[in-house]
């Protein structure tokens, strides 16, 4: 019995420590690469530091993160790049890209703050108070009150000097000044909220100087904002949409970051070619419906097929069921049962529909449709723009195999890869619109007109967003283009343009749909149409690699050996 007990104990130790050893090593089944630990620690350490050094634009935060990212770069460079697996090389390159981008942004911040040094320094001592507050040090309340009172006086002097000297700042410098003062105000609020009430002396001494300084910071921020060089501000062209065109140089820099080796002009040319294809297909569908070449009349009939008020959710459920049945029937990818089980619906508020006039997706399918308090014209435009034939093209985009399945798989596969990019997120979802068109998913010419509406819209997004950021088009011209060229309802077109330029989206977001979709489409031709993979293998493999630039997905799936000084060169459009 003693011998058996000893053997049992040894076996248990083997299972325990053997399991730990396996978990620490790269595993082919889970896809963990040699950079797993580095990547997990980088993300966790960044999160810890962000929560601790929370006052943006403060010297302390900037210096700490500059030190942090340089240290991470040093650790990264200790890996022998040439001996890494392909997945490890991809992780190396993408982590270096992330680090370099953060160091670049910190350098821009430092340069801009230094240019503003004279005007943002009066309240800098608030940073030190916040530093002491984080550790709960007891403060000399009388001295704090005097210091806050002194800062308010300095702000008054700075305001007088600003008005007297009347300097002008670029849009970028003005925004930096505003954010810096906002950070100083946040430091002040953090200190006051921590000690008030708990330290009677603090409350007695500091309350009034705090209130004066809190208002003084708000007033000073407004004075700084007024110093913007108005010639650098975008003008309201009558649309009421005021965005921030970034210019050609910054467009190219950001596209290089996203591994898109095309110029803005080349992408517009690609979009024009895709538009021409859609135009020809639209005329075919219009003729089948009996409208000849009057595609607007055919599209008008399709728009009028909207479902009655109150019935949009069940109409979307019907489209979803048809979409998923099609995916299963053609064995296009693996659909985990829980992913299919747990998606749900919500309705988008009227206010939010001003920015999001169509579907939004993910685990929750968010539906745009009129409510009783919307005016008559807006109700009709929303119903017409969300008719079932138009929506047929987007249900799979938002749910399965698009955004919902993407999120589901990202949470379960290589979740340490935090390389989020719209060219993967929106590109993958758009790719399914291209693929299902090829597979005759639309059942009628009306369905084809609905799918073509969205395909034209994706091309239009490239054209209008790039022309806007290049300074060639105004927001109103973008709206008119969507109405005249795609067939948008005007209110919906306004919502799309407002979403593009005033929503929380990066300058490349709108062009990422079609561009990323074309990347996946070309990769499918390279791997599936050539017979190297089945279509199900291809789709499952993409979803198991998590989000990253599509060229890096290609590198992994083709087992491409990469160079340490890699630069994007994949010309994925060959029409």
Automatic annotation (TrEMBL):
Keywords assigned: Signal
Pfam family, one: DUF885
Superkingdom in the source lineage: Bacteria
Leader sequence segment: 1-22
Record-linked InterPro entries: DUF885 (IPR010281)
Keyword Endoplasmic reticulum: no
Keyword Mitochondrion applies: no
Name by which UniProt lists this protein: X-Pro dipeptidyl-peptidase
């Amino acid at each position: 019995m003693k011998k058996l007990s000893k053997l049992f104990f040894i076996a248990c130790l083997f299972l325990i420590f053997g399991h730990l050893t396996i978990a620490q090593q790269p595993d082919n089944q889970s896809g963990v690469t040699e950079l797993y630990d580095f990547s997990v620690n980088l993300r966790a350490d960044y999160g810890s530091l962000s929560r601790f050094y929370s006052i943006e634009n403060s010297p302390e935060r900037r210096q700490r993160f500059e030190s942090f990212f340089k240290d991470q770069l040093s650790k990264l460079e200790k890996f022998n790049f040439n001996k890494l697996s392909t997945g490890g090389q991809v992780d190396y390159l993408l982590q270096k890209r992330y680090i370099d981008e953060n160091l670049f942004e910190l350098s821009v911040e430092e340069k801009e703050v230094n240019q503003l040094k004279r005007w943002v320094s009066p309240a800098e001592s608030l940073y030190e108070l916040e530093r002491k507050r984080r550790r709960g040090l007891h403060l000399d309340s009388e001295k704090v009150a005097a210091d806050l009172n002194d800062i308010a006086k300095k702000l008054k002097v700075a305001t007088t000097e600003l008005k007297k000297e009347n300097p002008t700042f670029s849009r970028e410098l003005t925004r930096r000044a505003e954010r810096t003062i906002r950070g100083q105000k946040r430091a002040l609020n953090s200190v006051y909220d921590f000690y008030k009430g708990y330290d009677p002396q603090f409350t007695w001494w500091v309350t009034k100087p705090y209130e004066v300084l809190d208002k003084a910071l708000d007033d000073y921020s407004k004075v700084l904002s007024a110093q913007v060089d108005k010639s650098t501000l975008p003008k309201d062209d009558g649309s009421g949409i005021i965005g921030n065109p970034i210019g050609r140089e910054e467009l190219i820099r950001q596209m290089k970051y996203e591994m898109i080796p095309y110029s803005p002009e080349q992408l517009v040319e690609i979009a024009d070619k895709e538009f021409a294809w859609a135009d020809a297909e639209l005329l075919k569908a219009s003729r089948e419906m009996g409208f000849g070449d009057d595609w607007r009349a055919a599209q008008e009939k399709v728009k009028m097929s909207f479902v009655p008020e109150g019935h949009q959710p069940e109409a979307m459920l019907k489209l979803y069921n048809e979409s998923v049945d099609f995916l299963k029937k053609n064995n296009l990818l693996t659909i985990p049962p829980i992913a299919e089980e747990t998606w749900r619906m919500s309705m988008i508020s009227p206010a939010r529909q001003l920015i999001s006039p169509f579907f939004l997706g993910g685990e929750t399918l968010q539906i745009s449709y009129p409510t009783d308090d919307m005016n008559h014209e807006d109700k009709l435009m929303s119903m017409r723009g969300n008719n079932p034939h138009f929506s047929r093209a987007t249900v799979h985009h938002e749910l399965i195999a698009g955004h919902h399945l993407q999120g589901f798989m990202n949470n379960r596969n290589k979740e340490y890869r935090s390389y989020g990019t719209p060219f993967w997120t929106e590109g993958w979802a758009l790719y399914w619109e291209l693929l299902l068109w090829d597979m005759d998913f639309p059942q009628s010419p009306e369905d084809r007109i609905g799918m073509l509406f969205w395909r034209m819209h994706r091309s239009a997004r490239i054209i209008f967003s790039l022309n806007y950021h290049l300074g060639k088009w105004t927001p109103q011209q973008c709206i008119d283009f969507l109405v005249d060229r795609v067939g948008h309802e005007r209110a919906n077109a306004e919502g799309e343009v407002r979403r593009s330029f005033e929503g929380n989206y990066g300058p490349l977001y709108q062009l990422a749909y079609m561009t990323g979709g074309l990347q996946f489409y070309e990769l499918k031709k390279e791997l599936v149409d050539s017979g190297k993979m089945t279509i199900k293998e291809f789709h499952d493999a993409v979803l198991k690699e998590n989000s990253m630039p599509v060229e890096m997905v290609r590198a992994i799936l083709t087992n491409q050996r990469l160079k340490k000084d890699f630069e994007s060169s994949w010309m994925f459009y060959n029409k």
